[in-house]
Amino acid sequence: MAAKLFPTINLSPAIATMALGSASAGHSLLEKIRIAALHSFKGVEVYFGCLEAHAYVTAGVVDHQSLLQAAVETKEVCDQNGIFVVCLQPFLFFDGLTSDSARIDAFKRLRLWFNISHALGTDLIQIPTNFQQHDTTGDLGRIVEDLKEAAALGLKESPPIRLAYEGVSWGTHIDTWETTWEVVKRVNMSNLGICIDTFHIAARVWGDPTSAFGCLKNGEAGLTATLERMIQELNPQKIFYIQIGDAEKLSPPLGPGHEFWDEKMPPRMSWSRNSRLFPFENQGYLPIGRILAILVQHIGYCGWASMEIFNRKLFGGDPAIPEQYARRAKQSWALTIRFLEKEHENDRARQAVTAL
Question: So where does this one cross the membrane (predicted)?
């Protein structure tokens, strides 16, 4: 790995609203924001499904006007509790659409999301790579065209809107950070960057929920190679924010007959929806610490680090779930900072020995 070492850890703690309970189970967006603030988080990723649920509860309908009003109310509660809206996410099924009508509809949605983002007080929208199994293309030229047009529209907004492109580990055509980074470089616009997610990177190059070992046969080599490429290629200024999370090792492994198995869903997606964990929790096993250390200490990323998880238990109706998960997330954040501080000490010691 590269010898360069950045001297400080400068991360701001955020949490995704769906990580504090599913809206479909009745967990209120505004209450989750208040609870996040009580547990020392400084920012939230507003999950669109949470916003839709709030719009429906308050207006009885989900439309342009009710979504904007829900965003205004969300912003008010954030302001009252000292919470910053990091981004609105996820803007699904956007890149590589082959149907002209679907593409037109996607850009109409994007313009609505611009308006919602302004009402929330955020300048950032996250776009995950497309995981639709049909009517999409992996042609990078077409995908670059989509993102370039979206970024150009974002620049025309006042204030401008930034877009964070995220490589989803079960993406149909793009499932790595390397390819999202290639798209960002080709687009070459100031308001398009990437979102780096420790789960998706580890899940794609190292993890395998269908294996009894929980990992790919060549996972260690794959992880080492991707971390080397990060150091060599990534510009920290183009990492608009990072998401940190881990996952359970499935035992038995995922396959037909498993309670999480869904033949219509990619295995990594089912794993993600059911079994993700906050960083450094006891049941986690992915090598996310190695990824995080590279991002912070060797690349020099500083900024928002958001706890993003999905888990089957978040769909429970127990009203205590948001507080329970916020408490776990706060403990996880402390462990994350402790890990990075220890890694920093170890790196400094190694450099001192090398210098002798």
Answer: none
